[in-house]
Amino acid sequence: MAESVTKLLLVDDDPRLSSLLKRYLEENQCLVTAVGDAKQMDNKLLQQHFDLLILDLMLPGEDGLTICSRLRASGQNIPIIMLTAKGDDIDRIIGLEIGADDYMAKPCNPRELVARIRALLRRQQRPISAQEFNEEVFSFGSFSLHVNKHELHTVEQIIALTSSEFAFLHALVTHPHQPLSRERLMILARGKDHDVFDRSIDVQISRLRKLLADDPKKPKLIQTVWGVGYVFIPPEVST
Questions:
Q1: d(Cα 22, Cα 31) in Å, to the nearest integer?
Q2: What domains are there in the chain, each with its CATH number?
Q3: Is 83 helix (H, G, I), strand (E, B) or coil?
Q4: What whole-number distance in Å separates Cα of residue 66 and Cα of residue 69?
Q5: What is the Cα–Cα distance from 34 to 181, expressed in whole angstroms?
Q6: 9, 70, 189, 231: least surrounded by Cβ within 10 Å?
Q7: How many CA atoms lie within 13 A of 166 on its CB side?
């Protein structure tokens, strides 16, 4: 059976790089629409559905960080891979803080980009088996994590999680009371092929604490284990 085609929207104002990436991605079961700025991107997003957005940081007019922040603020949960200048950790950290799911340094290796895309979409679009039809839910305190829907529920609202937010939260809640190193947490959330970039994990934890209203100065749910990493401590259930 033929592999399904992945629809990608590539936003980069470098025609040469866009052409190279488009050609390689389309040789790997992807259908790529390439645009050069935010206005063109917005038009394409209104016209059709895309499985994933590849977003360059440095763009004319509205830059990649601003675009990412705007999309997330509007409730757009399309998976986003940011392309950043090589070695620019500050931009990577900010990108993750505002909701990007992954990042790659430019010039990026097209083969690695394909692997990142596939890994991200596997997490986002994992098929539901017959055994999972009755949705798996992890409840803790006033929250419940709905696995199949990638949603975090509270008494008052339903929070649609980005792929990255879900992956890290799921890794934590499925290993309660177990201190997890940053390396172990990265493997659980994103797979063994990802490099461990400590600050990126710290940023993801910071985002989760905000979602869970977990005081970063005295966190109760996601606690820091100095010299190790993090541990998830679910509230005790009163009997």
A1: 8
A2: 6-124 (3.40.50.2300), 134-232 (1.10.10.10)
A3: strand
A4: 5
A5: 38
A6: 70
A7: 24
Q: Which residues pair with 71 in a beta bridge?
A: none
Q: In what order do the strands lie in the sheet with 6-11?
A: 30-35, 6-11, 52-56, 80-85, 102-106
Contact 92, 65 (CB under 8 A): no
> Which DSSP string do the residues of 5-26 spell out, in sequence order?
PEEEEEE-S-HHHHHHHHHHHH
- The answer to whether 150 and 166 are in contact (CB under 8 A) is yes
Cβ count near 7 (within 10 Å): 14
pTM above 0.85, yes or no: no
Q: Exposed, middle or buried by CB within 10 Å (0-12, 13-18, 19+), for 89?
A: middle
DSSP for 88-129, written as a single string = -HHHHHHHHHTT-SEEEEESPPHHHHHHHHHHHHHHHSPPPP
Tokens of 74: 């509007």
Q: What is the pLDDT of residues 118-174, one digit of tens each?
A: 888 877 665 444 344 456 889 998 899 988 888 899 878 888 888 888 889 999 999
DSSP class of residue 57 equals S
pLDDT in tens, 215-233: 888 899 999 999 889 999 9
